[in-house]
Amino acid sequence: MSAVTSPDQQRLLVEAVEQARAAAVEEAAAEVGRNAAPGVVGQHLEARPEGVSALTHYFASELPGYRGWRWSVTMASAGEDEPVTVSEVVLVPGDDALVGPTWVPWQERVRPGDLGVGDLLPPAPDDTRLVPAYLASDDPAVEEVAVEVGLGRTRVLSREGRLDAAERWHAGPHGPSADMARSAPAVCGTCAFFLPLAGSLRAGFGVCGNEYAPADGSVVSVEFGCGAHSDVVVEQGSPVHVAELVYDDGVDMESVPESQSS
Questions:
Q1: In terms of C-beta density within 10 A (0-12 exposed, 13-18 middle, 19 or more buried), how is residue 196 classed?
Q2: How far apart are CA 96 and CA 29, in angstroms?
Q3: Exposed (0-12), middle (13-18) or buried (19+): which is 18, by Cβ within 10 Å?
């Protein structure tokens, strides 16, 4: 309690419990109505000094839906001969209060697949995946766009943007680590249905053009593969192994002496 200016001033602030409670009840009236307000301000919990000549009283909150919250009433006094007045009344969460989750900006909440029909998702102004089309690039496809003065795209993928996409595709369901790829007879890079991408990603990725393949129309890694590879050949013949036939009439043959045969 050493934060207050004098023992008398300290005592006045500490003893202003009922004055603080009345201020909390007045504030609660806006939430539940004047008749019910006294019931939502519970017992006095503690008092904490707030710098020089100020102290905060805390009361338990009985407000429905605010379990563990507390009414915080800050009292202040300008001097020993000055009255104690209410400085601030606010409802604050306690250590065990039920509070909402930390707010996350909507740009960080959006996930792949969330975009629906009619939705708009503009890129962030400082999106590192994009650069102006007129900037020099190590991607031949970007250089081709750069000469389209006034007619080409205003922005293109940066090196960071291409690497980010390449890592995502390589680790995704159409990458070399997929179960389908591990059991495939050959990789997409040797398949006639494989359509390579343009630019610097050409060496690693393409689009599947086989309507019967599970990745038809999707970006696939050159190391991906499936059972619909263009070079798959089905061996002719019965899939069931047939043993060599053995003829047996089931009759045991025994020699008969000539004396018996006559």
A1: middle
A2: 25
A3: exposed
CB 88 within 8 A of CB 73: yes
Residues of the chain with pLDDT under 50: 1-4, 148-151
Tell me the three state secondary structure of residue 156: strand
Closest by Cα among 159, 128, 162, 157 to 145: 157
Task: Please report the domains of the chain, with CATH numbers, ordered by start residue.
Answer: 7-93 (3.10.450), 161-221 (no CATH)
How far, in Å, CA of 145 to CA of 157, rounded?
A: 11
Say if CB 70 and CB 58 are below 8 A apart. Answer: yes
List, for residues 73-113, the tens digit of each pLDDT value: 999 988 777 889 999 999 999 888 878 788 887 777 888 77
**53-77 pLDDT, tens digit each:** 899 999 999 988 888 999 999 999 8
- For residue 172, what are the contacts with CB-CB under 8 A and spacing of at least 6? 178
